[in-house]
């Protein structure tokens, strides 16, 4: 079989182009893609680590709030008892007439003014 010289020249040019493209184009692009993949993997790992930390903090916070709610509920009857139970002195107060109330307000305001004068 007879091989033409132009076919051999084309084959040599093809091999030269293949090795040049492989060395100058393909290897740097592949290295760049691998670096981006490594960076992406590192970021994804960092994100998953942060998600775990956030989940543990949320769980801790939920547990803290649950404890505070239980504390509040356990103390609620005591608080209601303090609020709704008046001391005996207050329970013994009878109805005060408007005159007595006005007189009492006048006396208290005079005391406040006198104390304010002594302070300044």
Question: In summary, what is this structure?
Answer:
The chain has 120 residues and is mostly helical.
Number of strands: 0
Backbone CA Rg:
45 Å
Question: Fraction of residues in helices?
Answer: over 70%
Name the beta content range: under 5%
Low-confidence stretches: none
Strand-pairing-aware structural class? mainly alpha
Q: What characterizes the major β-sheet?
A: none
What is the first-to-last residue Cα distance? 125 Å
Average predicted local confidence, pLDDT: 84
User: What is the string of SSEs from the N terminus onward?
Assistant: HHH
- In one word, what is the shape? rod-shaped
Number of helices: 3
Describe the 3D structure.
This protein is an all-alpha fold. It has a domain at 7-85. 88% of the residues lie in helices and 0% in strands. The protein has helices at 5-84, 88-91, 98-119. The chain is rod-shaped, with a radius of gyration of 45 Å. The relative contact order is 0.03. The mean pLDDT is 84.
